[in-house]
Amino acid sequence: MDWGDAAQLGAIAGALGAALLLFGRSRWPLLAGLALLALAEAGLVLDLADHGHRISPKLVALGLAALVPMGIGAAILVRSPALVTPVVLAAAPFRPPLSFGSEHRYYVGVEGAGQLGRLLPLYGVLGVAALALA
Is-contact 36 17, C-beta < 8 A? Predict the structure, then answer.
């Protein structure tokens, strides 16, 4: 199957999802926006797989396993939504210098000296907050 246009379709879905998230005033447009953003991410993954990047079953299982702690965090934020802002502010400055790829034994390695890190803690907290909203 040729997924050559998956990235373009994902970009369109992402733009529509972002617009729904920005301008939605009730719960259903927000949920539709989140669903469109998830669909856009799936399109980007399919496009990567089409261009020779291997998406292994282990990587898919790892992504699905990450939903468990995210669900626990979302349950906590649903019970006390006032925690969202302090948790986001606490996670924002942390940038662990990690490198990802198949050249590492466990797909994750530490970057060399002087390399900037990634905002993974912030992305995780924002993902948990989005899941709590849903």
Answer: yes
DSSP per position, 87-133: HHHHHTT----EEESTTSTTSEEEPPTT-----HHHHHHHHHHHHHH
| pTM for the structure as a whole | 0.67
| Angstrom distance (rounded) from CA 21 to CA 37 | 9
Contacts of 17 (CB under 8 A, 6+ apart): 32, 33, 34, 35, 36, 37, 39, 40
pLDDT, averaged per 10 consecutive residues of the chain (134 residues), comes to 70 89 87 87 76 70 86 92 92 80 73 71 87 82
